[in-house]
């Protein structure tokens, strides 16, 4: 009878360890999926920001005609001259 009880206890311990290991594997899988999902979301965000910056730069470049460009340069030179004069 004692041997049967020992075997039954060992069996229960093995089942319990197997269940615990299975739970750890499930948790690791969930963590990995969450990490991969977060990484994918961040990559999409980066791509969207890059595209937005490229579009903004393209718009800015196309809207600066030569006259406006010259006026902007003259204004910046005047600002720099004022800054130098104040020192």
**What is the total number of structural domains?**
1
- What is the CA–CA distance across the termini? 100 Å
Average pLDDT, rounded to a whole number, is 88
The whole-angstrom Rg is 34 Å
Helix content: over 70%
* Shape, principal axes of CA atoms: rod-shaped
Sheet-strand content, in percent, reads under 5%
Describe this structure in words.
The radius of gyration is 34 Å and the shape is rod-shaped. The chain has 2 helices and no strands. By secondary structure, the chain is mainly alpha-helical. The protein is 95% helix and 0% strand. The chain has helices at 2-63, 66-86. The termini are far apart. The chain has one domain (2-86). The longest helix has 62 residues, at 2-63.
Summarize this entry quickly:
By secondary structure, the chain is mostly helical. The chain has helices at about 1-65, 65-85. The longest helix is centred in the middle third of the chain and has 62 residues, at about 1-65.
Keywords for this entry:
mainly alpha, 2 helices
SSE topology:
Elements: H1 2-63, H2 66-86
């Amino acid at each position: 009878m004692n041997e049967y009880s020992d075997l039954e206890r060992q069996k229960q311990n093995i089942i319990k360890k197997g269940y615990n290991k299975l739970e750890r594997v499930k948790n690791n899988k969930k963590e990995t999926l969450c990490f991969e999902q977060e990484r994918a979301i961040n990559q999409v965000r980066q791509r969207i920001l890059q595209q937005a910056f490229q579009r903004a730069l393209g718009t800015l470049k196309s809207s600066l005609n030569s006259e406006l460009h010259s006026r902007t340069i003259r204004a910046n030179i005047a600002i720099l001259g004022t800054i130098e004069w104040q020192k």
